[in-house]
C-alpha cells in the first residue's frame, strides 16, 4: 500500500476547505467511478478524479496537492455533466489549482502555472491575448524555445493566422482601468483564499 | 363533580430527559377536579398500568389523563386499562408530551416543560366534559378485492380464497401473471419462472372462491373498511364468452403493426392476441388501436375464422359496481425508462437493451426462442456488458434509491448467458453488490468464480456506437483503471419505479405515496402491509422494489390481515361520530350536502309531540367522524362525540391562559 | 432586422480570422446584425477559472453588462468565450458573494437577465434553420459531414438547454437543411484537448487524433465545427496527428458559417477557405460545390 492513513497525517479540515472554496459537497461522492471512466485525460493522471475525491474526503492533503491530477484536468466538464451525485468535479479541480496557486502548497506541475501567468498578464496589459508574444514567452520560460515553431508555427505565420502586432486596446484609459481591475481582483482573492483556507 | 387522575410517563429518558415530569405531575395535582397526579417510568408497562388501576380504585376516579406518547401509539392500551378498572374507555384523554414536546424541543428544557404542562392541562380540561360512549359495530362484507394479477395479487387471492372467503381479482392486462411471467429463470435457484408461476395462475383461475376479471380497471372507490363500494371498468375485449381459446383468430389476423408488451417491444404482435401462450384466461382481446377493422372498417377475418362466433365488434366498455370488505392493492411496478440516459444512447441504440428485454431474449418462449442475438442485426453475441444501477442510486436522474433486485438479476442473467453460450464473456459494471438474502451472496460468488463473469467496480460513463460494435467506457475503481470494452450487446439493469399512473390510482383510495409514487405503508416496521386507510393493504412492488420471495411473503401477509378482518362477526368502530340535536335542527340540508360519506339522511320526523319536521339524522354505521357537518351547521345542532364544541372551546381557553404554577 | 451583441474573442482576430470573416459575411447576407461589444476584453479563456474565480467572473461580466444595458442577447462564435460568458452569468447568479465582489470591482450592477447564447443557437435556433434554408442558393449535395460540437458549447448540461447534451443535433439539422448528409457518429462531444493546445501538446494529439479517426471511420469527408480552439486542434495539428497515427487523415475542418456560406453561394476566398491547413478545395471541387 502506498499510503498509511493515520490520524496524525490527516489534515484536519482539508475537505472542508475544498468544499467551502468550491461550494461543492464532496462528502456526497460515493465512489461510483463514473468521472474516472469518462475522463479523457485520466490516463495521464497520477490518480483518477474519483480517487482524488476519495482522498479529499479522507483529508489526504499531501498526496492530493502534490499530484498532477488537477493540472491535467482539461475542463471538458464530462465528469460534471455525468456525475450521479451532482458534484461539479471540474470545479473541484479548478479549486485545487486555485489553492495551489495561492502559494500555500508546493506545485507538482510548473508548466501550466507559467502559461496561466503569461496568459493573464497578456489580458491585463492588452485586454486581449497576444499569441505570438505569449507563445514566445511561454516557450522561453518553459525552456523549450522551439516548441511548435516548425512546421505548425511557421505555417500559421505564413497563413497570416498569427499576427506580429498585438491587438491592443487603443484607449490608454481602458488599459489603466484594466490593470486597476486586476489589482483589485488579486487583493480580494488573497483575502478570500486565506480566510477560508487557514 | 369529575374525579380526574393524571398519569405522567417518563418513557425512560425519552420524555424525562427533557421534560421535568415531576413538575408536570405536581402542577396537575393543583388543577380543579384532579384527585391524584403521579409520574412513573413506563406507564404502558404492566406495573405502570397497575398503578393506574390502583389509583382508580383508591381515589374513586371516573376519568383519566395520560401524559405520555402519541395516542396512535398507546391510546388503545390505556382505554383497555380504564375498562379493566371499570371506567368507560372514552373517559381517557392523552396528552402527547413525547413526539410533540420532548423529541422536538430537546434544546430548551424549561419551555418544553411548560408546553408539557399546558398540553396536560388542556387534556384535563377536555376530559372534564367527556361522556361515556358505547362501542359501535358495523357489518363486514366478507369479500375481498385484489387489484393486480401479478404474483403478489395471485398469492393474496389464493390465500384469502383458501380461508374460504370470496375474492375478485382484477387485472388490467388481458392475462394474469404480471412481471414474473416475463422472466426466464429466477434467482438464486435458477428455476424456471413460468414453471413455478403457471400452476399458481391456473389455481387462481380454477378456485371456486376466486373470480377473475382481466382487462379491467378500478375507476372509483367509496366507502370504508368492511363496506367499500368499487366501480370497475371492464374494457371491451371484443371477444365474448363463447371463446374456447383455440387461437385461430390470432394466427389468421393480418395485422402485425403493434409491438408485444409482453415481449418488451422486441417483437410484433397481432391485433387480436393473448399476451403469451400460457395466458390465463386463454381468451384473446382485440387491440382496437391496431385492428385493421377498427382503423379502416374492413377486414373482419377473425370473425370469419372463429369457429364459435365469439368475435363481437360491437362490445362496449362496461362498468360494474360491487361491494368489498377489504382491498389488497398489488399494482406492481414499471422498469425505469433509460431514455433519460443520454450517455447510454437516449434509449435509441437498439443493442442497448433493458434487463427485462434480456429475459425475453433468453427465454425459450421469447421472440428469438431463447437465442440471444442482437436486436439490430440478429447476429450472435460474444461480449456482453451488463451495467447496473441504471435509474437506481442516481440523484441526477431523480432516482436516488436502490432498486434492491438488480444486483441479483444481473448476476443471474450473466450466468444464464454463460450457460447457454459458454464461449461468450459477460462483464458486469457495478457500484456495490447488494446480495442480502438467503443464498444470495453465494449466488453472486458463483457467477464470478464458477461462471467466470468479470465484475468491474465502476459506473459506465458512456456507450459509443461504432459500426457493428458498442464501445463501453467504464472504470474499475479498485484497480484505478479505465476500462474499454467492445461489446456486441449491452444489458442495462434498469431499476424499478412505480407503475405509470400510480399516484392517480392512490387518490382513488386516498392512500399516500412517497415522492416517487411508491405507496406508503402504515408503519415502516410494525405495519408494513397496512396503509393509513383501514381495510386497504399493499403487497409487492407497488410499495417498494422487492424480489419474488419478499413479494410472496408480503402478499400472504395481506391475506392474513384480510382473513383476520373477515373472521370477525362485526366490525368494531369508534363511536366518535356526529350526532344531531333534532330539536334545534332547522332541516336546511347543509350537512346533508357537505357530508363526504353520505352518512346523513334527511327525514320527516316527529321531533316533539305533535310536531313533525324535516330534520337530519346520522347513519351511525356510515359516519366516519370527520366533523364536516359540525362546522357547516348553521344552527349548531350537530356535534361530534368525543370532540364536542364545549370540549374544544375549553381546550382553547386553557391553552391561552397563563400557567399558574409556582 | 435581427440584432445581437457580438463577442468575437481573441482567436477570431488572429488564428481564426477566417471564422470571423465568414461569420460576418454570412450574417450580413442573412440580415443578422452583429453589434461588436466595444473595447471588449478577453473572456479569460481556459486560464482565468483555474487561477481565480473572481477573475473568471469579472472579465466576462464587463461584456455581459454592456449587452444587458443595450438590451441585446450576447453571442460568441467561440465555444470557449461562450462558455466563459455563460458560466460567469450562472456563477454570478449562483453565488451572491461572488456577485457582490465583482460588482464592487466593476463599479456597476449586473441583473443577470440578459441572454447568453452560442452563435450556433442564435443562428440556427433563434434565426432558424428554416429561414436559412429559404435563402440558400446551392445545395451541398453528396457531402458527408461530421458535426463536431466539442465540450464547451454543450457542457455542463445547463448551457446546452434545449439540445441533447450527449448527442446534440443542432448542427446536424443544419447540415440536412443544406442538402448535405450529417453522418451518425458518437464522438460529437468528446474533448479535443483545447486547453492544452500549447502546454500539453501530446494530450491534444491523442484526443484530437481519436476524434479525427472516429470521424473518418464513420464515413465523414468533412468535419464541421463551431469553435476556433477545436478547429486549430483538428486542422492545424492534423498533419502531426497523421504522422503520429501513420495514416493520411486529410479531412478538411470547416466552420459552420463557412459551410452555410458555401450554400449561400460564396467562393473559396470570400470564406477564406485558403486559411485551413487541410485544403478543402479538392473535396469541394469533386462534389461540384466550388
Helix content of chain B: 25-40%
Known CATH architecture of the largest domain in chain B? 3-Layer(bba) Sandwich
Main sheet characteristics of chain C? 4 strands, parallel
Low-confidence stretches of chain B: none
Estimate the strand proportion of chain C.
5-15%
How would you characterize this protein structure?
- The complex is a heterotrimer of chains A (198), B (662) and C (290).
- By secondary structure, chain A is mainly alpha-helical.
- Helix content of chain A is 59%, strand content 0%.
- In chain A, helix 1 crosses helix 7 and helix 8 (111-126) packs antiparallel against helix 9 (131-141).
- The longest helix of chain A has 26 residues, at 172-197.
- Chain A starts with 13 loop residues before the first helix and ends with a helix.
- The model of chain A has no long low-confidence stretch (mean pLDDT 83).
- Chain B is an alpha/beta fold and 662 residues long.
- Chain B folds into five domains: 4-133, Rossmann fold (3-Layer(aba) Sandwich), CATH 3.40.50; 140-235 and 317-332 and 499-569, FAD/NAD(P)-binding domain, CATH 3.50.50.60; 237-315, Alpha-Beta Plaits; 336-497, FAD/NAD(P)-binding domain (3-Layer(bba) Sandwich); 573-641, Alpha-Beta Plaits.
- Chain B is built from 18 helices and 32 strands.
- In chain B, the strands form eleven sheets. A five-stranded parallel β-sheet of chain B has the order 10-7-6-16-27.
- The model of chain B has no long low-confidence stretch (mean pLDDT 95).
- Chain C has 290 residues and is of the alpha/beta class.
- Chain C has two domains: 2-118, Up-down Bundle (Glutathione S-transferase Yfyf (Class Pi), Chain A, domain 2), CATH 1.20.1050.140; 138-286, Rossmann fold, CATH 3.40.50.11810.
- Chain C has 13 helices and eight strands.
- In chain C, the strands form two sheets. In chain C, strands 2-1-3-4 form a four-stranded parallel β-sheet, with helices on both faces. A four-stranded parallel β-sheet of chain C has the order 6-5-7-8, sandwiched between helices.
- Chain C is globular and about 60 Å long.
- Chains in contact: A-B, A-C, B-C.
- Chains A and C meet through helix 6, helix 7, helix 8, helix 9 and helix 10 of A and helix 2, helix 3, helix 5 and helix 9 of C.
